[in-house]
Amino acid sequence: MGWADNLSRKMSEWLRIGAAKPDTSDQPDLKDVFVAAPPRLAAPIRQAGGDPDRVVRWFECDAGEVFRFATTGETAVEGWRSLRGCFESTGCWPVILGANESIERLSDALFEPDAPSVADILERARRTNLEEWQSTIQRRNGELDPEYARPYAGEWPDDLDIESVSQFTGPRNVVAGRPLKRVWIGFLPIRHASEAAAVMRFGDWNAVPPPEVHVALHDRWAREYGAEIVTFKEDVLEFQVSRPPQTRDAAMKLAELQYDYCPDIVDQGVGSIEALAAGLLNGRIWYFWWD
Fold first, then answer.
1. Which member of 80, 157, 189, 284 has the greatest number of CB atoms within 10 A?
2. 195: which residues sit within 8 A by CB, 6+ positions away?
3. d(CA 90, CA 135)
């Protein structure tokens, strides 16, 4: 098990839900109205293991319509890869959305009357200076806590102690160690995977950065590391990475940025920036979770 699995187990213990939490992901409690998929999505959905005649038209934004369909947790990742291969023809980026609970919580943000438009978020992202944003985060942390210091371990972990994320958690019950009975996959009408957070209006609560920072960072990571978003849940984002950092120095620089972006993966996860960097070195999956 990778550190993301360990973190998820800790979260579950804190919430006292127990290791035997029943899997209710297949219960139809969302009151969805099903429609037939648009023609351009029908064949890809079928190929990905879904039913193109049972698709939910989830919401509409200024970027277009967003659809989702149900599949099994066991087949969700392979289904995502199949849909990823069709991105150029469908014009929709696929994301694993998790089970019903995740859909409900994501919808709370999506349907707020004052939610910003996708175009506004993308424009803000273009104007975002990530170096200034990172400096502001560090300065603010210091002002809130005079004893604030980044959690450095001071040394690289031993090889036997290095844990990389080994599998996507989005379609799994990580507490029970098995795939969910049902998960949702969504289609986002975007030109680049990095724009997903704009369509989902994701962020700006607790320690979660605002949507434009997600977009700007995800764009940088796509260009530098070939990072593409796979899982998009209410509090978890996961990426597949084709060009991970190859040196310790590069991994440390990335880990420092990821810590400022999502401190919970260290503070409530691996414990130090060096441990995070060691997992990122040659790591093919990135995991982010916000409490």
1. 80
2. 63, 93, 118, 122, 188, 215
3. 39
Residue 190 to residue 212: CA distance in whole angstroms = 15
Which residue ranges in the chain fall short of pLDDT 70? 1-22, 25-28
The reported pLDDT for the residue numbered 46 is 97
Structure tokens at 72: 């099994």
Give DSSP secondary structure letters for the chain.
--HHHHHHHHHHHHTT--TT----TT---S---EEPPPHHHHHHHHHTT--TTSEEEEEEETTEEEEEEEE-TTTHHHHHHHHHHTHHHH--EEEEEESHHHHHHHHHHHT-TTPPPHHHHHHHHHH--HHHHHHHHHHHHHHH-TT------SSPPPGGG-----S--TTEETTTTEE-S-EEEEEE--SSGGGHHHHTT---STTPPPHHHHHHHHHHHHHHH-EEEEEE-SSEEEEEESS---SHHHHHHHHHHHHHH-THHIIIIISSHHHHHHHHTT-SEEEEE--
Residue pair 58/92 in contact (Cβ under 8 Å)? The answer is no
Tell me the C-alpha distance between 9 and 22, whole Å: 15
pLDDT at 27: 67
The per-residue pLDDT for 16 is 41
What is the per-residue pLDDT for 175? 83
- Listed by start position, the domains of the chain span 3-289
